[in-house]
Design goal:
The structure is a homodimer. Chain A folds into 2 domains: about 90 residues, Arc Repressor Mutant, subunit A (Orthogonal Bundle), CATH 1.10.10.10; about 60 residues, Dna Ligase, domain 1 (2-Layer Sandwich). Chain A has 6 helices and 6 strands, in the order ααβααββββαβα. Chain A is of the alpha+beta class. In chain A, strands 1-3-2 form a 3-stranded antiparallel beta sheet. Helices cover about 45% and strands about 20% of the residues of chain A. The interface between A and B is large, with 39 and 40 residues. The first copy, chain A, binds a DNA duplex through α2 and α4.
DNA sequence: ATAGATGCAAAAATTTTGCAAGGTG
DNA sequence: CACCTTGCAAAATTTTTGCATCTAT
């Protein structure tokens, strides 16, 4: 099997997991779209277009697996569907967070973190980690509100 | 109808909504537990114990309504159930965030924000608000990782 | 009185599971 | 070849909807 994302494949091999065609299709979709936040259905449809044999259940199982390994992050913007995207631990994945419109569900990505913010976040993580004996792997930051469009209408 | 949370009731009246018994039961549960993050089912069970006539659908409808009004915040910790808690905009609700264990689902509340953190957060919100013309009402901050217990076992 | 709100039950939507068959190491 | 992984279909879970009835204003 061709290894499209060597970093992920190495981790899978190290954990005794098999590098299958279906998994590679899904990993490829996620790797090529590090700034997107796809739902399971969207990933299924894209995977299905590449290989029509792929089933919904396997997409869910693979997403769970990758989330468990810390390769992707599962999140939820309030519309009942889980979303998945590469974690910041991945190469070439810019640190980014989300602005979520509670009116229309629109999600804006927000990447411009200042050094001050990054440092403070790292400090907070370190403090929390020690205080609660919690091994922090990732964080989710969402700002919720009303987007430009909905603000005009509403 | 007795008004258990005058602040919320005033807002409801202002928006032409009716202050019903069912709504007050639900608002009371949420008001008395500002630091908890109940699922819809948990709220339904508690409401049902107070007034067995209350139905599941109304619980969902009321939670949606309150979330839409910005009185409660809907969030998701990765177990497929939405959670609801009073927003910081409410009186007497301490600013707090969550540490979520991705192994066992345990959620630890984290309230100790320094002034530095609060100021920076306010600054970031203001900047984002202007840059994206987004009226920010709230934020969700979650740190994801492995809790003390799961760390020992795993 | 009347428009909004409720409760029930049925439906929708998303996610999980069982199991025989297939693919990877 | 052994055993992990898959696909399908069925099941489980969570959330939403339709509609007659009730109730707050």
């Amino acid at each position: 099997m061709r290894h499209k994302n060597p970093w992920v494949c190495r981790r899978m091999v190290k954990e005794g997991l098999r590098i299958t065609q279906t998994r590679m299709v899904i990993i490829d979709i996620l790797t090529r779209n590090p700034e997107k936040h796809f739902s399971a259905e969207e990933i299924f449809l894209m995977a299905h277009r590449i290989n029509p044999g792929i089933g919904f259940a396997t997409v869910y199982r693979t997403l769970d697996l990758l989330a468990q390994m810390g390769i992707i992050q599962k999140m939820e913007f309030g519309d009942g569907k889980a979303r998945y995207e590469m974690t910041e631990a991945m190469e070439n994945v810019p640190h980014h967070h989300h602005l979520v419109c509670t009116e229309c569900g629109k999600v804006i990505d927000y990447t411009e973190f200042t050094d001050e913010e990054k440092e403070l976040l790292a400090k907070v993580e370190k403090e929390l980690s020690e205080k609660y004996k919690f091994k922090i792997k990732n964080h989710i930051i969402q700002f919720c509100g009303i987007c430009n469009n909905c603000g005009k209408r509403g």
